[in-house]
Amino acid sequence: MHSSDDYDIVCRYPAFEVRLNKFGGQQGLFSTESYNQGDTLIQFSIRSTQPSPTYLTIQIGEAEHFEFEPDHLKYLNHSCNPNVFLDLTNHTLIAETAIESGDELRFFYPSTEWKMDQPFDCNCGAGNCLGSISGAHALSSAQLSNYKLSPYIQHKLTH
Predict the structure, then answer these.
(1) Is the pTM of this model over 0.90?
(2) Cβ-contact 55, 41 below 8 angstroms
C-alpha cells in the first residue's frame, strides 16, 4: 500500500479525487467519503459508445463499448481484490467492501471485459492476484466465480 504522501491531487470532484502517484506516474480515483458495503457511490451514464474496445471503455455487448459520464470514473484502476463493482444494469458504482475516506477505488477489469484492448501484468498486491489480466476469456470458471460479473460477461460464459 502507498501512503498519501506518495500522491499529488490532480483534481477534486464531489466525493472523489483523482490522484497521481509521484513514483509510478499512474493516476487513480480515490474516495473522499466513507461507504458501507453495498452503498452506491455514484450513478453514471453512457457518454458515447463504439464498436471496439479502448483503454478507457467498458464492454456492454459483443461490439459495444462505452465511455463514462462523469468522465472522472475513467480513473478507476484494477484490483484482483476489488472494493467497488460497476453495476451496468443500474448504472451505479457499488461498494463491494467498506470504503474509508482516502481509499483508492478499484474494480475487477474482467468483470466487464471479455477480451481487453491492452492486457497487462497485474501488480495489485492482493493475495489472490491473478498476475496477467487480459479479460474474462482467459480465466477459468472457478477463478471468475469469486467475482460479481456484468450481464454481458455472464452471457458469454453461458453461450
Answers:
(1) yes
(2) no
Q: Which long-range contacts (CB under 8 A, 24 or more apart) does 117-123 make?
A: 117/52, 117/53, 117/54, 117/55, 117/57, 118/55, 122/78, 122/80
Instruction: Report the domain count for the chain.
Output: 1
Q: Is the pLDDT of residue 109 over 90?
A: yes
In this structure, what CATH number is given to the domain that contains residue 63?
Answer: 2.170.270.10
Q: Which three cell numbers stand for residue 144?
A: 471468475
The verdict on residue 132 lying in a domain is no
pLDDT in tens, 136-149: 999 999 999 999 99
Say if residues 75 and 18 touch (Cβ distance below 8 Å): yes
Give the largest CA-CA distance in the chain. Answer: 47
Closest CA to 28 of 124, 147, 159, 92: 124
7, 22 contact by CB (below 8 A): yes
Residues in a beta bridge with 64: 61
